[in-house]
Amino acid sequence: MDDAVFARLARLAREFRASVRERSPLPVSNFPAGMELRANYNFSDPRGLDHVVADVARWMESGTLQVTHPRYFGLFNPSVHASSIVADALVALYNPQVGGWSHAPAANEIEQWTLRALGETLGWKGDEFATHFTTGGSEANHTAVLAALADRAPGYTSGGTAALTKPPRIYLSDESHHSFVKIARACGLGEQALAHAATDSSYRMRPDALLAEIERDEALGLAPLMVVATAGTTGSGAIDPIPEIAEIAAERNIWLHVDAAWGGSAALAPRLKTHLAGIELADSVTWDAHKWLSVSMGAGMFFCKHRRALKTMFEISTGYVPPTVEGGVDLYKESLQWSRRFIGLKLFFALAEHGMDGLGRIVERQANIADSLRERLRAAQWRVVNDSVLPLVCFTHDAIDGTSLTTQTVVERVLARGRCWISHVTLPREKHALRACITSFDTTEADLDVLIEDLQGAIG
Prior knowledge:
Layout: H1 3-19, H2 34-40, H3 49-62, H4 82-94, H5 105-121, E1 130-134, H6 137-152, H7 156-159, E2 168-173, H8 179-186, E3 194-197, H9 207-219, E4 223-230, H10 242-252, E5 255-259, H11 270-273, E6 284-288, H12 289-292, E7 300-304, H13 307-314, H14 345-379, E8 382-384, E9 392-397, H15 407-417, E10 423-427, E11 431-437, H16 445-459
Parallel strand pairs: 2-3, 2-4, 4-5, 5-6
Antiparallel strand pairs: 1-7, 6-7, 8-9, 9-11, 10-11
Helix pairs in contact: 1-3, 4-14, 5-14, 6-8, 6-13, 15-16
């Protein structure tokens, strides 16, 4: 190995992190290096690693939306702690196979210890649930549906949907994540398995609408399988009323899954945790560390109170994998993945570096910055159209009439200035708005000044 290459990598990491605020968060252009890429990398002539590092770093800096920028007010893609960079490098160095405990007992124990500590912040007891890391929230949500089918739909694991006497139904709000559309297709249930309960004026699932959907389906001979409550919707940051939804699910013997991919991190912040009340009642939970805990992608987490359901769905016996070690957990027998990357090390590093309370303070600080943004927008005569306690702000202005000036036009004008990144969102009942999420722990009041100035310029 060339020491100079590793020294260059370390220098790149230091310099980029130190200078990212001075850059534009937007790509310089639509990857003009594409021609250079095709011309210089035909893969017939070897190139020195130092040249490859220099080229790729240049392309990443000029041809990438910089989601670690403090003025990227974006889509749950965070700035990352330096410890994530170190952890991912160590994972690549040792390349442990975490799918089987016998191959990577240290990595498995680190992941399980980390996950159990976080599970306890949800109100779950460490010896009462199964848990593992996933590639992201979509895989975790997929795992939840499969676990529910194994537990509540006898015959599915051996006979598939053909073995089911009644078509299963999954209940979501009309603001739930669209990963469930893909999941319903992939599980063989089809999109017709999804029932969307209406939301209230704050974009939260209405328990009365949920109950009406369930009663209608039961009358039609369908089989309610799962209710998905969302803790932090992608569009507006809404948190569904989990206690009321949990009560309905328990009365009807329906699996309760809480998709807290983003909002789960509120469990670490005392001011926000109360808004997750009821999450301890769930059968399963999705939570992504790579959203609001500021570790590099991907680091999804799945928590489940029914290990037997996971084993029913995923357990396999083979003649080519070493036998299970007593006291160890072979994750390939309890999850979708077989070969597994050591995903959890970066989260272990973040917890070790900052402590649980330290990460909680970082989470709460971002929520405080969002509160400040709401106040500044209102002072500048903008209207905030969501009421989330999470750091996501949806807003509009009377000057935006939807014809001569649209929200999309405002977004384009803000992006054209090259100083901030925001997005357009369509909320239920076709309400168009601008969307800004505090995704970086480095975002300051000065960054809000820049955003407000660019917004005012966009409507001026």
